[in-house]
């Protein structure tokens, strides 16, 4: 029996939000809490353990509806987790996202001083996430969770962000969302790319072997095992600016769509350039192999999918120059907030819209932080010096983006920042046993 077949994830102890792709369509909400009374915070953990959905509940009557709970470092401290245990958590987690802002490229307009309050502050202790196929089922899920916190005067809800799928089933820039998902051994959930071997469970769940053979988890084992780290980020999207830039740098509506595809690496329908280089092909949406493609083997120079485009940076797949890509894989999930900007509008209407992003992985440093700093905000790994991601990279207006083309490459100049960081948190998402352990703390 192979090692892969021997791995048995304890799905009934892992929160479902760790491994399951979000439903489509969906409605979601993020609620942040501050713990003012340690006893009430612990009671919240006890109650949450009965409300949170496990990864084994995928066939339950709740269907595609689930609730997850995560804690910041300040939240664990507020619960009274002993310092000898706190010291065993990842050092990036202990510092927090706001303290890591400069390294992450959250500077200028993206810096924590401009973040939406209370994101990035010591007041954020607990993050509750509820996800469902529609608003009615979402509210039902929240109603089930509400008794866990509503009567606890020492726990205060301090922020909420509602999210929903747009009628177009796209993100605000107009691209179809939610396409890629890695396979995790032992999860039973297939990946979206059939050419990618399932990743070791320890890349995403603490307490299991990872791709390097390591076994990592905070101590004691009852706290760390079956947990993971989750990065939450609120990203505001400048949709009108993005549309205007495409229009100003294209020669026709057809060229505008091609330019949008080259920047993203996919056409608006989600069809990858790798499989449909010359035109959009919405029919690929029904193809189970629509995400099964490689770059280095079939397109090393980026003539089809530019090396600097958004999706190739985020997951270079088989690119040898990017190091061992498997060490930097994450589970990514985005949920849209705010109303869509009406089609054709090229002026900002002042409405806040964008994505709430969640990145799931057991290694904050070599997963989220590596991808953010080395692949999104730098271009050295594919020979483009300090060029940043054209979609999410921070730019002061002097950036550029190169599209390989024969006989002459195409170069876009004066790239503005299309996406702004409005805040975020590094969180630990405990297993269900760990939630009960946190609830039973004394002292």
Automatic annotation (TrEMBL):
UniProt entry keywords in alphabetical sequence: Iron, Metal-binding, Oxidoreductase, Peroxidase
Domain DyP dimeric alpha+beta barrel: 27-144
A Pfam family assignment: DyP_N
Cofactors, names only: heme b
GO molecular function: peroxidase activity
Record carries keyword Oxidoreductase: yes
InterPro entries per the UniProt record, alphabetical: Dimeric_a/b-barrel, DyP_N, Dyp_peroxidase
Family: Belongs to the DyP-type peroxidase family.
Name under which the protein is recorded: Dyp-type peroxidase
Annotated organism of origin: Nonomuraea roseola
Organism ancestry: Bacteria, Bacillati, Actinomycetota, Actinomycetes, Streptosporangiales
């Amino acid at each position: 029996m192979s090692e892969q077949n021997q791995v048995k994830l304890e799905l009934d102890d892992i929160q479902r939000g760790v491994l399951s792709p979000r439903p489509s369509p969906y409605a979601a909400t993020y609620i942040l809490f501050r713990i003012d009374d340690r006893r009430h915070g612990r009671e919240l953990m006890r109650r949450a353990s009965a409300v949170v959905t496990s990864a084994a509940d995928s066939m339950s009557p709740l269907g595609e509806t689930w609730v997850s709970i995560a804690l910041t470092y300040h939240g664990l401290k507020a619960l009274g987790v002993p310092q000898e245990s706190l010291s065993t958590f990842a050092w990036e987690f202990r510092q927090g996202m706001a303290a890591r802002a400069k390294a992450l490229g959250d500077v200028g307009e993206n810096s924590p001083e401009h973040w939406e309050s209370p994101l990035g502050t010591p007041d954020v202790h607990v993050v509750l996430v509820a996800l469902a196929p529609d608003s009615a089922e979402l509210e039902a899920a929240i109603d089930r969770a509400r008794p866990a916190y509503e009567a606890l005067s020492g726990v205060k809800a301090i922020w909420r962000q509602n999210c929903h799928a747009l009628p177009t089933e796209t993100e605000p820039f107009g691209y179809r969302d939610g396409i890629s998902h890695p396979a995790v051994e032992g999860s039973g959930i297939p990946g979206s790319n059939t050419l990618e071997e399932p990743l070791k469970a320890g890349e995403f769940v603490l307490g299991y072997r990872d791709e390097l053979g390591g076994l990592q988890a905070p101590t004691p084992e009852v706290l760390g095992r079956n947990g993971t780290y989750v990065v939450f980020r609120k990203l505001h999207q400048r949709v009108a600016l993005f549309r205007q830039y495409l229009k100003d740098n294209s020669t026709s509506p057809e060229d505008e769509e091609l330019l949008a595809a080259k920047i993203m690496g996919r056409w608006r329908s989600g069809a990858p350039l790798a499989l449909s280089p010359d035109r959009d092909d919405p029919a690929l949406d029904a193809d189970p192999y629509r995400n099964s493609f490689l770059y280095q083997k079939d397109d090393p120079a980026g003539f089809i999918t530019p090396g600097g485009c958004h999706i190739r940076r985020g997951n270079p797949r088989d690119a040898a120059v990017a190091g061992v890509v498997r060490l930097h894989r994450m589970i990514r999930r985005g949920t849209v907030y705010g109303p869509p900007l009406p089609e054709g509008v090229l002026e900002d209407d002042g409405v806040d819209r964008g994505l709430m992003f969640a990145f799931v992985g057991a290694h904050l440093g070599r997963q989220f932080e590596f991808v953010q700093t080395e692949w999104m905000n730098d271009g050295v790994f594919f020979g483009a010096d300090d060029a940043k991601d054209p979609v999410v990279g921070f730019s002061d207006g002097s950036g550029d983006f190169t599209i390989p083309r024969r006989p002459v490459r195409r170069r876009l100049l004066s790239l503005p920042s299309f996406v702004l960081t409005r805040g975020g948190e590094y969180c630990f998402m405990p297993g269900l046993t760990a939630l009960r352990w946190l609830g039973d703390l004394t002292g």
